[in-house]
């Protein structure tokens, strides 16, 4: 599995961010070809001090190639372009292979 994580900094208008994200952006995410599972939160906290991020998104893909194809697709480009409509504080995008463990 390959994970895509988006870390959103504090936006200029948190209420607009939440509303736009849920009403407009997530419906696009739900139909992103190649995306196996996704999750998000607006309740980001740090174990000590203030959290440097306002919100987080996690998306799961079968592998790095599937994620790259999804991001490069016209649909993926539309998703990326939509970020400017709500993420006025900016976003950090990370991705990595996931290694499973037990116990």
TrEMBL record:
Spans through the membrane: none
Cited Gene3D superfamilies: 3.30.70.100
Domain EthD intervals: 10-88
Domain of life (superkingdom): Bacteria
InterPro entries named in the record: Dimeric_a/b-barrel, EthD_dom
Entry protein name: EthD family reductase
Species name: Streptomyces crystallinus
């Amino acid at each position: 599995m390959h994970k895509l994580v988006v870390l959103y900094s504090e936006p200029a208008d948190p209420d607009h961010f939440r509303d736009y994200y849920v009403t407009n952006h997530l419906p696009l995410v739900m139909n992103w070809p190649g995306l196996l599972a996704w999750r998000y939160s607006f309740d980001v906290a740090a174990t000590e001090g203030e959290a440097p991020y306002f919100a987080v998104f996690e998306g799961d893909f079968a592998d790095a190639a599937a994620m790259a194809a999804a991001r490069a697709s016209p649909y993926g480009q539309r998703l990326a372009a939509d970020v400017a409509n709500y993420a006025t504080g900016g976003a950090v995008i990370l991705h990595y292979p996931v290694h499973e463990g037990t116990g």
